[in-house]
Amino acid sequence: MLAEAGGVAAEGNLPRVVYLGGLGRSGTTLLERLLGELPGVCSAGEVVHLWQRGIADAERCGCGEPLPGCPFWRKVGEVAFGGWANVDVRRIAELRSAVDRSRHIPVLAAPVLYPSLRRGLDEYLGYYLRIYTAIAEASGCPVVVDSSKHASLAFCLRWRAELDLRVIHVVRDSRAVAFSWTRQVNRPESASDPYMPTYSPARAAWLWNAQNGALQLLAREGVPTLRVRYEDLVTAPSATLASIGRFAGIAASGADLDFMGTDASGRWANLSAAHTASGNPMRFATGKIIIRSDDRWRTAMPAAQRRSVTALTLPLLARYGYAGHAA
Ligand SMILES: [Zn+2]
To answer: 64: CA distance to ligand 1 center in Å?
Structure first.
């Protein structure tokens, strides 16, 4: 627990945190929405972007309200910090830059940290632990899902042994991921930054190797990790959620899964509004959504790009069971 002046809440009883890791465009937003429908689970979105995009830039919560004005997040801010006005977003950005970067992963993976990094890390994690605790209190849920995705934040979180951290390593075929990153995607929550970035196929392949390799290293370091393939999630969502439930101690069987079903139009899920901070535009979807595999890359991806991404990512493609589809 942190001793804090100024009436700021201590970390309190930490919830279990289910962290969704993986490269963007791998289905983490769909997975977090489905997990958020399970009893006792609060999906909070990409908490790493809460500070700048949610608090400072007042981008929209998944419920549609500007995040600082959303009743749920207002309560979280009150519980965690006595109000968002007490949060120094610039300081959090400084700390993130000092400790939570992909290039710091080799240092964060070491058994001992040098003292200045340890101090920065403890201060940085203090914000996260207070936020997780406040999300659990405001939602009444003992399990918080953080879909921040970046391996580096998971490497930071592992340094707080008292945190019950379970990582879901979400993988998707590298060709599908690379194809998706070449395409423009709107960010409807932001007027000043209306599109997500795009990457060349080679850049996306490099990022895919780096993120997935880092998450495998995290598992080898002893952090409880379950690998989930996007393709299994969309073709067998109930079975996938049940296996995540067994791994993460979440009720996900029988009537818990009644929000999903299959009819003539395919597999569907009935989603309620979720108070998510940042993420793919799919986080705004409510009501009945169709769950289907996005396979546009198979027909629309130029053959040269496909061959290049296959070659650049072949070792992990094979490891994850995609090599049978290599082209
Ligand atoms: Zn909201």
So the answer is: 6
Q: Is residue 10 part of a domain?
A: no
Within the chain, how many helices (H) and strands (E) appear? 12, 8
**C-alpha 278 to ligand 1 mean position (Å):** 11
Return phi, psi of residue 108, to 5°: -65, -25
pTM greater than 0.90? yes
CA of 179 to the centre of ligand 1 (A): 31
CATH code of the domain covering residue 161: 3.40.50.300
**Number of domains observed in the structure of the chain:** 1
CA of 318 to the centre of ligand 1 (A): 40
Q: What is the pLDDT of residues 126-149, one digit of tens each?
A: 999 999 999 999 999 999 999 999
Looking at the chain, the whole-number percentage of residues with pLDDT higher than 70 is: 93
pLDDT digits (tens, 9 = 90+) for 171-219: 999 999 999 999 877 767 666 766 778 899 999 999 999 999 999 999 9
Residue with tokens 């395409």: 183
Q: How far, in Å, are 36, 71, 78, 163 from residue 29 at the CA level?
A: 10, 22, 26, 23
Cα 89 to Cα 12, 192, 317, distances in angstroms: 22, 19, 38
Whether 318 maps to a domain, the answer reads yes
Q: Could you tell me if 22 and 16 are in contact, meaning their C-beta atoms sit under 8 angstroms apart?
A: no
Closest C-alpha to 22, from 141, 176, 143, 134: 176
Q: Is residue 62 domain-resident?
A: yes
Question: Distance between CA 155 and CA 221 in Å, rounded?
Answer: 9
Burial, 219: exposed, middle or buried (Cβ in 10 Å; 0-12, 13-18, 19+)? Answer: middle
